[in-house]
Amino acid sequence: MPENKNPSLKDPKLYEELRDEGASKQKAARISNAAAQKGRSAVGRKGGKAGDYDDWTVDQLKAKAKEIGLKGYSGKKKSELISALRNS
To answer: Which of helix, strand or coil describes residue 21?
Structure first.
């Protein structure tokens, strides 16, 4: 059995698959841990409720960036915030 390099990862195999697909470290960890806790099918159904970031205000985007732990978002333009949120 492979050794878990990061003990905070609950599903290291899924984490590595997501990283290979291009997901950021934070996003891959978030998804793999949620899948381990709730089951992969439950996590797959979770998305799609937030709406399009283009419809959000800058204040809403900044609040979301703060909520998920992004750094350096306060001086970003709306388009930069959207890009950072989509790629986190």
So the answer is: coil
Q: What residue type is assigned to position 36 of the chain?
A: A
Measured distance CA(1)–CA(16) in Å, rounded: 15
Residue at token pair 């492979």: 2
CA 32, 38, 44, 50 dihedral sign is negative
Helix/strand/coil for 73: coil
Question: pLDDT tens across 17-48, in order?
Answer: 888 888 888 888 888 888 777 766 555 555 55
pTM: predicted TM-score of the whole model, two decimal places: 0.45
State which amino acid sits at residue 61: L
Using the predicted structure, report yes or no on whether residue 62 has a pLDDT greater than 90.
yes
